[in-house]
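Render Acyl-CoA dehydrogenase in 3D.
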Amino acid sequence: MPAFSLEPAQNTWCSELRALAADRLRPLAEKGEPGRVNHQLLAELGRLGLLPRLFTSGAVDLCLMRESLAQECTEAETALALQGLGAHPVHAHGTPAQRERWLPRVADGTAVAAFALSEPGAGSDAAALSLAAAPDGRGGWRLTGEKRWISNAPEADFYTVFARTTEGAGARGVTAFLVPADRPGLTGTPLDMLSPHPIGALAFDAVPVTADDVLGEPDRGFRVAMTTLDLFRPSVGAFAVGMAQAALDATLDWTAQRDAFGGKLRDLQTVAHTVAEMALRTEAARLMVYAAATAHDTGAPDLSRRAAMAKLLATETAQYVVDAAVQLHGARALHRGHLLEHLYREVRAPRIYEGASEVQRGIIARELYAEREAGR
C-alpha cells in the first residue's frame, strides 16, 4: 500500500465494512448491556470473518477495519479490537498448544480475550508493575497482586497477564503469562466507567502458572507488551479517526439543514471555518495513522516513534472534532442516545489507554534523541 493513499479495492472493502456495521452489527450492539461483553456481537464478528482477520492481516488492514467499524458502530469496533489486543500475544509469542487451544475460539467469538497490563500503581509506567510471580519450587510461579482497568474483565475467558518475575530489574524482570479465567485464586469485579464497554479489576491470590503458560520467554514479557502496543497504537488512532469522521459527517448534515440567522448554519463564517478545521485535522490524523501502519507492515526502524505520533495526533484530534461537533449541534447533542453524546463518552478514554498522550510525547522525544545520537 502506498503510504498516503488507499487502493480502490481497499476503499471498496471499507464501504462494505461500514454497510455491515450499520446493517448487521449496530442492531446487535443496541441489544447489548453497557459494561458487559456482548456475546452475540462477538459471534457475528466471527461469522462475518472479521475476527479471523486479526491473525492474518497486518497493521494497515487492522486500521481499515477499526476506522470503518468506528464510523458506524463503536461497540463493534471495540469488541473486535479487544479480542485482538488480548489474543495477539498468544498469536505472536504463544506455543503451538496455546495457539491451538485459544485462537480458533477467539476467531469465532466463543472465547473472550483480555490484555492485563495496567495496575493501580502502574498505568502509564508499565515497567513499574508489581504483580508478583513468586517461584513455587516446582518450576512454576504463584501470581499475587492486582490488575485494574482491564477491558473485558472480569468476563474474559483468558488473560494475557504481565507479572514481575525478577525484583529490581525494571522492564527486564517482567514475564507474560496466558492465564485462563478459571484458575484458582483469580477473581474479578466490574468497574463502572465512562466508556460503555466492559472494564474491570482482577485480584490474584497465589494463582498458579507453569512454564506452559509463559508467552515468549521468562523475564522478556515487556517486549511482548511493547510489540503488541506497537501494532495496536496506530489502530487506536484509526478508531479515533473513525469517530472523528462520524462526528464530522453528522456536523456537515446538521449545519447544512439547520436554519439560523436568516440562512443555514453553514453560511456563518465561524461555523464554516470550524467545519474546515475539523476536516483538516481529521485528514491529517488519518494520513499519519496509515503512515504508521505502513511502517509497521514494512518493518521500518522508526516504528515506535511513528506509532506514538499516530496515536497521539489521532486521539487528540478526535477529542477536538467531537467536542466541536457537540458545540455546533447545541444542547440536542447532549441528549442521552444522540450519536454525539455517545461519541463524547467514547472519545475520552483513547487519550489514556495503551499509553496516555503524555507517554506518547515521551516516546517521540526519546526516539528523536536516540536517532540523533545514532547519526553522529
